[in-house]
């Protein structure tokens, strides 16, 4: 038995697929940006906050890292309305992604912060920098530089895992694929094309991150 | 008619855990076997093998796990096999796990100093002996903590089998929720069960990492 491939149905909905891909990109960048801010705050809290704060941040990280993203989405999208907070699928998806990536990125950035030698901080203070300046220039920037590869691969994983938000019908790439699939029944053709789009997005993201690294962090010679 | 969430519903969730565990074990063992070959290919001296393994890893790490499951599920019909969600999930998760474990183990194999390889070669060992007696035993030591850590990802990954209709813990949660309509309670319990499965493994992985990291360097 031979299967008759029909890609026409996929290409007929090309615009729709691109819309979905664009939402995937926007969700991913939105979640990265907000997640990064949360992660920096949590990493700071975890390395130098008072004990209850540290404990809370730890609990947040452990709960998120040890439960599936899909269950987190269900809790946010279906669970929150039952306590009176009704969210649209897109907003719920964004919140779930932020909460998820925030936990992973906190651990990564914390590792970066802890890699900064105490002497560096003391040197910074001795030079008359204010604590906030020390944190920004002496701790955070070199820390982010150290963990940059881990952080960006986490962001790419986030973009890929955003396909899971199709389970609550946020209109991103995978949801769009599901819709086209249910109208045309060309399941395999659609999912193989969409998988290709994700692969291209992942490659574009890593090229973009490499570019950002060159712009923002290439200020010392790597002596390794 | 809406049912209340009671003891039976809780038992239903608990009994679904066995499917989550079964799927995890299959994906982990299958992924481990394929992953070993991926890691060997990735560190091989033969260029085509290396390129093949690199491409394999790139494709599986560069596309969503959900898409991989869909492709196995719907791809089976293309080649004329009627595949149940259960088999599709097992195959998809195995392939995905093998790519990630392969890449983790590549790093472990490469962490064995080059001198060890050269020493083994000069002792007259060929590739199988060199791997079996010299490189892999040393690589395994480094590989244990990240592998245990990755097991957590495997368990969490099995939740996506719910989307293609396989009744494991997450799907059981959806079913109970549809009957009781208490999403906050139901999914909190589901999350708590996953946490109870994954957290001990995370802690173990951290502990092993601390133990292995201390004396070696």
The gist of it:
Chain A: It is a multi-pass membrane protein. Chain A is an all-alpha fold.
Question: What topology emerges from the helices and strands here?
Answer:
The complex is a heterodimer of chains A (224) and B (217).
Chain A: H1 8-12, H2 14-48, H3 51-65, H4 69-79, H5 89-114, H6 118-126, H7 131-161, H8 173-184, H9 187-216
Helix pairs in contact in A: 2-3, 2-5, 2-7, 2-8, 3-5, 4-5, 5-7, 6-7, 7-9, 8-9
Chain B: H1 7-42, H2 47-61, H3 65-78, H4 85-110, H5 114-122, H6 127-157, H7 169-180, H8 183-216
Low-confidence stretches of chain A: none
Count of spatially separate domains of chain A:
1
CATH architecture descriptor of chain A? Orthogonal Bundle
Order of helices and strands of chain B: HHHHHHHH
CATH class of chain A: Mainly Alpha
Could you spell the SSE succession of chain A in H and E letters? HHHHHHHHH
Biggest sheet overview of chain A: none
The helix content of chain B, as a percent range, equals over 70%
Query: How far apart are the termini of chain B?
Result: 64 Å
Distance between the termini of chain A: 57 Å
CATH topology of chain B: MetI-like fold
